[in-house]
Amino acid sequence: MHLSALHGWFYDCDREARWHENYPLAKGDNQSPIEISSKDARYDTCLSPWHASYDPGAAKTILNNGRTCRVVFDDTFDRSVLRGGPLSGAYRLRQLHLHWGSSDDHGSEHVVDGVKYAAELHMVHWNPKHGNFAGALKQSDGVAVVGIFLKVSEIDNIKTKGKEAPFQHFDPSILFPKSRDYWTYHGSFTTPPCEECITWILLREPIEVSADQMAKLRSLSKNGENEPVNPLVDNWRPPQPVKGRIVRASFK
Ligand SMILES: [Zn+2]
User: Fold this and answer.
1) Would the pLDDT of 152 be above 70?
2) Considering the domain boundaries, does residue 157 fall inside one?
3) CA of 123 to the centre of ligand 1 (A)
4) Tell me, what's a Pfam family for it (predicted)?
């Protein structure tokens, strides 16, 4: 049996090149992340501003699942929603998580004009017109992810895999940069099974994170509490073929 069939998928030294062996969607025509070339992005005057209306009371827990750290929100009703931009209707915030590197010169998944950031934050929202999250994953307009370059959060208490802590009264909109400028394109989840259901909204302006905060992220462990520490780093997928997709920009 292939190792990844035993343990699920993983990030490893031959990187993610073999995900498609178990997850055929990973070789699709609309995969993420991609390299963004700002000069090739098409300024689109029809792209309206996006708006987030988040309820701090919707934040529930923070979790280290061995692959990332994730904050989970109550999405049983339209409590914290994203609207506007390239989207039709309101999308519910379900979770946010991060991708980061082993050092400051890489870690983001999307690459902008050749620049890799130290980390990339993904705020995952789904379209309630598809009934539930699983249903949304099967639709091309099912999910909207806001991608923000760099970020950090309260992670001291989830140092090892399987650890989860309450994470409440947290307003994720504090994570937004000043500028609302964004690029948008149609893509996929960057983790298996890599469903192609995502409207990406990538914010142009990164947010700042301290070296200490990045060090804290890298101090998380892939392993459980009584196992040797195995640093959770380099949980990013490299850029995938663009295959003719157009990246639109909300700004000139
Ligand atoms: Zn992600």
Assistant:
1) no
2) yes
3) 8
4) Carb_anhydrase
Q: Tell me the residue range of the domain where 190 lies.
A: 22-172+182-249
Q: How many domains does the chain have?
A: 1
- 198-219 pLDDT per residue, tens: 999 999 999 988 888 889 899 9
Ligand 1 centroid from CA 155, angstroms: 17
Q: Which whole number is the average pLDDT over 34-51? A: 96
pTM for this prediction? 0.89
Ligand 1 centroid distance, CA of 32 (Å): 10
Q: How many helices (H) and strands (E) does the chain have?
A: 4, 14
Ligand 1 centre distance from Cα of residue 98 (Å): 6
* Residues with Cβ within 8 Å of residue 175, at least 6 apart in sequence: 96, 121, 123, 148, 151, 207
| Average pLDDT, integer, range 163-167 | 85
Q: What is the DSSP track for 25-48?
A: GGGSSS-S--EE-TTTSEE-TT-P
| H or E stretch at 50 | strand 50-53
94 domain-assigned: yes
Q: Are 109 and 71 in contact (CB under 8 A)?
A: no
* Residue 119 belongs to a domain: yes
Site of tokens 């082993």: 102
Find the CATH number of the domain harbouring 209.
3.10.200.10
Q: How far is CA 214 from CA 39, 150, 174, in A?
A: 30, 9, 18
Taking the centre of ligand 1 as the mean of its atom positions, its distance from the CA of residue 108, in whole angstroms, is 9
